[in-house]
Amino acid sequence: MTTNAAPHSEIQIGIIGPQPLIELTNESLKSFPNFKAHFRNFNSSNFNSDALQDLMSDVDVILFTEYHLYEMAKQQVKFSIPVHHVPLMGTGLYRSLFLLKNSHGLRSLSVDTVELKYVEQILLELDEQAKEIYVYKKQTQGPEIQKIIEFHLQNYDTYDTVALTGIQEVADGLVEQGIPFEWVTPTQQDLIVSLERALLATDTRRNKEAQIVFGLINVDNFKGVVEKFTSEHDVQLLKLNIQQMLLDYMKQLDGHLINLGGEEYSFITTRGIFERETRGYKFIPLLQDTKSELNITLSMGIGFGSTAAEAGNHARLALRQSKELGGNVCYIVREDRSVLGPVDITTHTQYERYDLAITDAELLDKAEKAGMSAAYMTKLMARVARYRKFDYTAQELASTLKITVRSAHRILLKWMDAELVEIVGEEKVTHKGRPRRIYRLSFIDDGELF
Rounded to two decimals, what is the model's pTM? Predict the structure, then answer.
């Protein structure tokens, strides 16, 4: 089986399970920019050990979204890479028992896949107790799904039970039989924990733990900040406070800080520590702390590379991206010169990911005519890809690009002259005023979106 070589900065992960859980996992993967996912919609009836064997040659780690598929795979395939499953013992089980209690009451339960001790533990926390709990014991022969459905049916007829299942196919069978049930599915929190475990298990990850990370930190509008102070003493005090906050943050990163003079600093740490302390590029408290405590904002650029020189060059490119966005953010440029960010301050975001350079000569020529840099063009393409939207009013484009409406109008006029956009209609507004023109970004091809 031939595969396209993926960028070496990405970790290939196989996600296996029924379609609803694949879609759920895909949402959680937006918080893991290092993962490149390969999805396989498998259940017990269409499980293909040969396809799974082929998948193993393409990925670094595999995650099963259902435990019974994981068990089935272990019996048929010898794994040569780390393999994990999403356990049904966390917030997903808690949610299912809570829903079951509200919809059917906690009478006798008929349970498969889920461990009895976890069910009992959560019932204890809910200050509830089921009359009886009947647990399915795994069979060694015959079609398992049908036997599980028959197990629940027999318990329902005999003991008036409510079924608790961790298998979609069983849930579908219970619907046909008219048996009350709850399908235990993982929450986003359960999936994030499982994905973090999978991330740490890969050889690729272990090899990158000690990789050098180079960072640049720049105080936004430093000249304007110091002009507010009336004495040199206050300026020096501010510089000392900034340096102290940076040193405190470097202590968390086990990093080495260097004052480059004026408003710029550099630091060196390792990739493993940086990823753990930023929770997988999702959390940089330094940005928020300096804003709230010192009333200044910082721009950060992080560079990954196979050499220190490469990492340093990429950090400078990343800092430029942060500055272009207006500061108070952090961007990362990775080994393959792809850009990742902005690294969010307080919440989990959907990341922009794009290559640093456009290679389409015609598109570059049009961008140049419109006075737009290649970096800005790629950033715009990434944002449009995020929303999968091509038609914009000036107001919508301003909101998407985080610029003023006036700037959006000016940009759109330049793009029209360069044949990068076209007017495709008008939007009537409810209040008095002229209709808003709708522009189509014709330079972005739907097939290019990722």
Answer: 0.50
